[in-house]
Design goal:
Elements (H helix, E strand, L loop, with lengths): L1 E6 L7 H14 L7 E6 L2 H12 L7 E5 L18 E7 L1 H11 L3 H16 L7 H41 L6
Parallel strand pairs: 1-2, 2-4
Antiparallel strand pairs: 3-4
């Protein structure tokens, strides 16, 4: 899976985290691993321009998704090729997200991960215009995000334990020549 991130926002953001959460969500949604995704991080003015141009709504927003191919989870079974070439584009506005993160009481990184999952789900055809759609999409979004965050916590803990073990074994002389 190819995921490209272009940060034009002027803000310092972990592109590795965005790629990780996007890759996780895409894999969990059974999208073919050959799919490609583009992510662009923009400033408030650029997002406001896109929001007016594509949604006819004033002011900036947090995330917009632009699907490239008609998709269903798992790809199209009637397609002669295995999976789509280009999933689409997700546009994030870190400055807008920072305000939302502060109001929600969590970090900008958490908010951007949530918005990335939200954007991926939109690319896969999920919407929240109707109450039933909103319930389904947000439950799935929250579930995917929680699972990704837990896997990251586990990986960090395992890395800490491995580092501790390495230091302890080194002090005990297990690595002496």
């Amino acid at each position: 899976m190819s995921i490209e991130v272009s940060n034009e926002s002027g803000m310092d953001v972990s592109e590795e985290d965005l790629i990780s959460v996007a890759r996780f969500a895409i894999a969990r949604m059974n999208v073919h691993p050959a799919a490609e995704l583009s992510m662009v991080l923009v400033d408030l003015d650029t997002m406001a321009d896109l929001h007016v141009r594509w949604m006819d709504l004033p002011g900036p927003t947090d995330v917009m998704s632009f699907p490239m191919d008609e998709l269903e989870p798992g790809g199209r079974p009637d397609s002669p090729m295995p999976g789509p070439a280009m999933l689409g584009d997700i546009v994030l506005c870190p400055a807008f997200a920072a305000t939302q993160a502060k109001k929600a009481g969590h970090s900008l990184a958490h908010e951007l991960a949530l918005l990335t999952v939200h954007g991926v789900l939109h690319l896969l055809g999920f919407d929240h215009a109707e109450p039933d759609e909103e319930k389904e999409m947000f439950e799935l979004q929250n579930s995917l995000l929680a699972e990704w965050l837990e896997l990251r916590r586990q990986a960090r803990r395992e890395a800490q334990l491995a580092e501790r073990d390495r230091r302890l074994l080194g002090k005990a002389g297990f690595f002496d020549a």
